[in-house]
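Could someone model FE2/S2 (inorganic) cluster with this protein?
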Amino acid sequence: MEALLAQYTSVNLASVTHWYEVAPVHQFPKNGGVCVKYKGMQIAVFYFARKGQWYACQNLCPHKLEMVLSRGLLGDENGVPKVACALHKKTFSLETGENLNGDLPSIATYPVKVQGEKVFIGFKE
Ligand code: FES
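Reply:
Sure, complex below.
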């Protein structure tokens, strides 16, 4: 179980060493997420259309270690973009990964960039 969580470490923009091309913009639902597989990891990528922003985080919810966050609901808490897990509604900041309604471990977050019509996730390798 711990090994699953240990695969995921937040990456900040300054430390990106590899931009992984995910898919064209039109393949993402507005105000929803998709799951992307990368090197044995599952990454949830969200297009928060209401804010005009993109976010990425681990798909693994630290509550029951289910791969479900890409199916979560997007929202806003005092200006902080968040995702609510589809199973038990634990919420996490999409900026810092912090659990906003409990004391679960933070989730890992990753930078996203859009170039032309293509969406990329930033990783540190
Ligand atoms: S598994 Fe995500 S809140 Fe329970």
